[in-house]
Amino acid sequence: MTGNPQYRIADIAALEAHYGSVNDTSRLKEIDHIHPAYAALIKASPFAVLATGGQGGMDASPRGDLGGVVDIVDERTLILPDRRGNNRIDSLRNIIENPQVALIFLVPGLGETLRVNGRAEISADPELLERYAMDGKLPRTVLVIHVDAVFFQCSRALIRSQLWNPERHVPRASLPSTGAILEAVTRASIDGAAYDRELPERLKTTLY
C-alpha cells in the first residue's frame, strides 16, 4: 500500500498548510557562518555524512576521522580530506557537476546533530594534501567547502532511534556478513567466504 493518491501533497503551499508555520527557534538558529558555538560541535565530531547531487543522481557518503572529520579554516570555510575508499568517487563526480553539498555531523553520545549547507570545490594542492596526511599517507584530494548555512538539529531523531544506547546495539553476527552480501548480490561472482577472511587485514592495511 502506497497511500490514496487524493491525499498526495504535490505543491509547496499544500505542504506548508499541512505542517504549519516554522517556530522562531527553528528559524533563528540558522546562520550563514560557523559561530563558535557551532564550531565546538564540529570539532567534536569524528563522523559526518556528505550529501551531493548530480546528473547521475543523489549520493550520501559517510566520512570519518579521529580528531575531527573536517578542519575549520575560518567561519565560512571547511576542509574535508578525501581518504582512501573504493574509487567510485560518486560524491566527487557530483561536485564536478553541481558544487552544492550538505553535511550532517554526529558527536558520539550527543543527541543534537549539526547541519551545514554550502558549495564545494575539489583540490589536489600538494600543500593541502600534506597538511592532512594521516599515518604518513596523503588524502587523494580535499574538499574546500564554502559555507552558506549552519544550524543544529534537535535530539528527537537520536532519542527515538536510541542510536547511542549500547543495549540497542545490533550484534554483527546477527546480520549477513559483508562477504555474504557481496556473494548474494553478485550471484556468486564474488567468493563471500574468501572476502570475509581477507577483510580484517585489508581494512587494517588500507585504512588511510
Order of helices and strands: HHHEEEEHEEHEHHH
> Which assembly state applies to the chains in this document?
single chain
CATH architecture field of the largest domain: Roll
Q: What Rg is obtained from the alpha carbons, in whole angstroms?
A: 20 Å
- In helices, the fraction of residues equals 25-40%
How are the strands ordered across the major sheet? Answer: 2-1-5-6-7-4-3
CATH class of the largest domain: Mainly Beta
Distance between the termini: 45 Å
CATH superfamily assignment of the largest domain? Electron Transport, Fmn-binding Protein, Chain A
CATH topology (fold) name of the largest domain = Pnp Oxidase, Chain A
Question: Please, what is the average pLDDT?
Answer: 97
Estimate the strand proportion. Answer: 25-35%
Rough outline = globular
Low-confidence parts, pLDDT < 50 over ≥5 residues? none
- Give the tally of β-strands: 7
Class computed from helices, strands and strand pairing: alpha+beta
Total DSSP helices: 8
What kind of sheet is the major sheet?
A: 7 strands, antiparallel
Q: How many domain units?
A: 2
